[in-house]
Here is the input.
Amino acid sequence: MELDGDIVAVEAGVHSVYAVCADGTVYAWGENSDGQLGDGTTVSRSAPVKIPGLRDVVAIAAWDAVYALTSDGSVWTWGRHSARQVRNPDLARQIFDSLVPIRIDKLTDVVGVAASANAGFALRRDGGIHSWGGYEFGELGASPMNVERAFYPSWVQRANSGSGAKKSEPVRDGTAIAAGFLGAYALAEDGTLWSWGHNDFGQLGWGKQSAVPASRRVLAELENGEMFPRWPAADKVRNLGGVVAVASKGLTAYALKSDGTVWAWGANDLGQLGRGNIRPPLPDGTLDYSIVPEQVPDLRDVRAMSAMGDTVYVVHRDGRVAAWGDNRNGEIGSGLPAVQPSPTSVRGLSGVRAVAAGIDFAIAIVPATVRAEARAPRTQKSDGCYIATAVYGSYDAPSVVTLRRFRDQRLAKSMVGRALVRTYYLMSPAAAKYLVRIPLLSAVVRRLLDRLVKKLDGPRE
Here is the structure.
């Protein structure tokens, strides 16, 4: 699907897509049963339709409710506010299930927006963060004891490290925000990351996990003699610094660091951590997860990310796209509908500027010149490394490059080595197909290859 004009940003809701054009207009398509396309109807669209009444838009955040940020710092919303995302009674009556964009007057001087399943977030120019919507699991980053009185919007609070009488202060140094399923993340000026909300899979990165509702946590702290409850409030993601971007929209979170590496934490039942394996459930049925950030292996030079549900996409500096996680509906674009626990190259994409993840699909912004080249007939010569490519997910993965170098510089120089290479090429295409389909077998082979790569290339910094 193509749009005329220059697309500068793209966002995906659950089953809807939004494209922001260079002139500040917005086009949308996909599911529209709750008016999420903002065109005044509930008719779903298979082709882009211009959203009326929106001008000078610079960013979009979407779930069931959609928020548009304009260049003057104001926020507009439409769609289904299913979890009382706007608690001010007068405003709620005005915009509840609105089919067209409505401006939220109380939000001004905003520079960033985010949307979770039942809450909205706005980053102000002064570094403060507004939140509104559901609060049962601490999604607002503020005590629910105050939410009902203040209605909306609340200020996200940062938990104080002391005990007793010092009250938590509002966050004032935010530079970016992102939402999870029932929580959110804020990037601070010093490159640290702060999080709040639901934590049943350790997706807040606090080094622990808990699914206890916020109201019960606050009451427990009051019973322990704390005058000002510290929770729910934003707390620091452990062992993580130098962060430049964050993505989630699910039960797993991802941080992009300034060195181009990606770190993940939270649920891993569908390979969302990208570590190459999925641990079997514990005897009590608990699924695999991580409560602290861990680096995603074999990823370098990443400049952008997008995630939703159980799948994540990263854009490399050279425009290539890799993805991992849930792929049962082919949303990774690897050619085979199977869970991918390791970063895998998305086929047929190059020169990508940005990507947006929805539920079971993704959208990429590709310059017109790249699209024209992709349409041109061409032949491509492959020089093998089938098994290594299947295991590491990319022909250009660092480990695959090391193995190719070993083949070309050492094996190819002897008669025995060349015989081994020929035998490998006879067997590897069929073997690679099995590796892609059976993640557990792929993980075993990857461990063996990791040992070989380590000997050939030495430990990488």
User: Anything to note?
Assistant: The longest helix spans residues 415-437. The CA atoms of residues 387 and 428 lie 6 Å apart.
